[in-house]
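Section 4.2 – Deliverable D4.2 (structural model, holo form)

The reporting period included a commitment to supply a predicted holo structure for the target in complex with 4-fluoro-L-phenylalanine. Inputs used:
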Amino acid sequence: MVQNSQDRGQFSSKLGFILAAAGSAVGLGNLVAFPVMASKNGGAAFLIIYLFFVAFICYPVMLAEIAMGRRTTRNPVGAFSAISGGNPYWRLAGMLAILTPFMIAVFYTVITVWLVVYIKEIAFGHLDMLSQSGHFGEVVADPSLFAWLLGLLALMFFILLGGVKGGIERLARILMPTLAVMLVLLVIFVLTLDNASVGVSYYLVPDFDRVDLSVINGALSQAFFSLSLGMGILITYGSYFSRKDNIAQSSRMVAIADTSIAFFAGMLILPAIFAFDANTDTESLSTSSVGLIFDFLPQIFLSMESAVGYTGASMVAAAFFTLVFFAALTSMVSIIEIPIACWIDEFGFSRRKAVLLQAVLLIVFTIPATMSLGISDFFTNFTSYGGVSKSFFDLVSDVFYETILPFVGLTVCIFCAYQWKVSGLKEELVVGDESYSGSLLEKYINFSLGTVIPVVLLVVFLSTVNQIYFG
Ligand code: PFF
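Output (structure tokens):
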């Protein structure tokens, strides 16, 4: 095992870490899936359950992941391996925490390319075309996607060549505040539309009758994905975190930022949907981010034409898609950094060589994923399970995004509780934060990390497996 410390890098400050980690956490999940899930599942009732999971399940896992990274200054494979003294089984768990982000990056890249194409179409005055049903099918089956794919990959790898401070952190420092301001401006605009208040009350009035076991399960998975847990991201970002800084406090800021953006996205999407059609039945909305963003939202933006004219509606649409693109870009960069950190730490590659290797690997896997929605019949009808035909894109998304994440989270908990032991974890968490010792938080983590939390994650994992593969 070789470590090339010169190429590893570090965040410049606590704020740099918080912005970068929030950049990773804020993604399609916040901007689209969360608002719709909340409105379908009891509004504020869902929000309360979600907050409970963020605080009591996700937050401890977040601390554990960051602590593992900072203790070892290594990527997930190196972190599992170093703490366990080279145990081959735990090294395998570390490999899973590299493979998972590697594969998630594959389908997330494809979605981000679609966003780029949508922004281009709107800029050329084609919002009306995007709003026609079925147009999304044409966009995703157009071979010109490859040109955009190459452009996007070039941009991402250029950012990643800049390293932790000059690339990832600098991007987040620019995009995260921009994203927050754009979101607030869009919310203010949408709230002035007729019927917007119906959407707000749909979103904010708690309806506990709608809450059942599947809603609770959904809230936990959403919280887990939204905070970028189980993807090896926070282990790696933790390895770039200064030993002078406070892990518990910084993680709290990331969780608050992520949840606030999700909350405000609800104040944007729901009022916009109800302004479009005051009789919208939220039950009929799909929680699939992809269907909503690309099929449904262009129609909503076009409907604003009567209020603000075609150009006005196009500008709002362009602002929204740019916002989603920024969120996706900061998430993408975070996830591609994980395998890059692995090539640097474990193989002693320079950052340049690691970035190049990762670029080649990502291109090789992204091509079939891009061809999965009509360009190639082979990849479009790649396999079938759970009674449904699945494309290569679906397969990667189902296996790595939907299923394996909670499992990786589970291994982190078991690892920290029984291999590293809560005493080892504590030793790291008190660095930069003496108040952790003897705190209520410490007592809660000592109790729950090896008991309640892994059990809950196991239940989510099993129910997802059941739903996707046997449903
Ligand atoms: N936290 C992200 C979200 O809520 O959308 C999840 C994510 C997905 C992060 C893909 C990174 C990534 F590449």
